[in-house]
Amino acid sequence: MKPSLPQNDTDPTKRKSLLERNQGEYEFDHDFLAPMAMLKDVPSSENFSTKYIAERTVESAELPINMLAVNTRSLWDPLDEL
User: Fold this and answer.
1) Cα-Cα-Cα-Cα dihedral sign, residues 16, 19, 21, 23
2) How many angstroms separate the Cα of 26 from the Cα of each of 16, 34, 38, 79, 81?
3) What predicted TM-score, i.e. pTM, was given to this entire model?
4) Cα–Cα distance, 49 to 42 (Å, whole number)
5) Per-residue confidence of the chain (82 residues) as pLDDT tens digits?
């Protein structure tokens, strides 16, 4: 399917059908954080992959060690506060 603007679509009926089907996957909650609409559930096709989550977990595990190293170094570096 070649991308196009709605007014230039070669098959508007197919486009409308696809749009309606995809819109059905998103349910919004307007009361959770009014006046903003929030998704009640993220469709499974939009979730992060297991690989992505694992990579972020590994990278996040290094943060406390790095923060401790920075704080320790700051104790001995009087010019750090300038």
Assistant:
1) negative
2) 16, 18, 10, 52, 49
3) 0.46
4) 13
5) 688 898 999 999 999 999 999 898 899 999 999 899 999 988 888 899 999 999 999 989 888 888 888 777 766 666 666 5
